Amino acid sequence: MSTKHEKSVSGLAQHTVAPTETSSYTVRRGVKALLANDGQVLLVKERHSTGEPFWTLPGGGVEPGESKRDALHRELREELNCQILPQSPVEQLVYVHSSQHRTATVYTVIECGLLSDLDPSHPHGVLDARWVPADAVPARTLPQIRVLCERLWELPTGR
Q1: What is the Cα–Cα distance from 128 to 105, expressed in whole angstroms?
Q2: Are 25 and 104 in contact (CB under 8 A)?
């Protein structure tokens, strides 16, 4: 990761969004990896339960008793067969699942360094992995991820 970009990512303010009626939701914990370099972010292509493809950051759920960092290492090994170096949390995002009644996941987005090559794992639901310009993410990128990427690109040192 370039020094120029590291400064821009660490400049993101913590931002938390939560469902308005959290007591009526099942809330799960999750983690996402923000892997970025020279104005590009790594996105993975997955499918909703309806079969519709979408783009998001790599990551997934935190298992009971598992730390966020351990979950991030496990998820990226499963999804991309890669090794990462987790650094600092930069964001929290909420995803309300349409396929699971009244279930939401609060994802902690953690900036990471990439330590190995990527090898997307189709058995774990990853259809593709791609480095994309933060200011030009694919059309089917989840809205929360799109906003994060746009904010990342707007930072003066992120260009």
Answers
A1: 23
A2: yes
Q: Looking at the domain assignment, is residue 158 inside a domain? A: no
Tell me the C-alpha distance between 5 and 91, whole Å.
16
**The token pair that represents 94 in the structure block:** 């909420």
The rounded distance, in Å, linking the Cα atoms of 135 and 128 is 19
| Residue 15 within any structural domain of the chain | yes
State the burial class of residue 123 (Cβ atoms within 10 Å of its Cβ: 0-12, 13-18, 19+).
Answer: exposed
The residue among 124, 129, 107, 98 whose CA lies nearest residue 30 is 107
**Is 37 a domain residue?**
yes
pTM: 0.81
State the Cα–Cα distance between residues 142 and 44, nearest whole angstrom: 11
Residue ranges making up the domain that contains 17? 3-152
Per residue in 39-83, pLDDT (tens digit) is 899 999 999 888 899 999 999 999 999 999 999 999 999 999 999
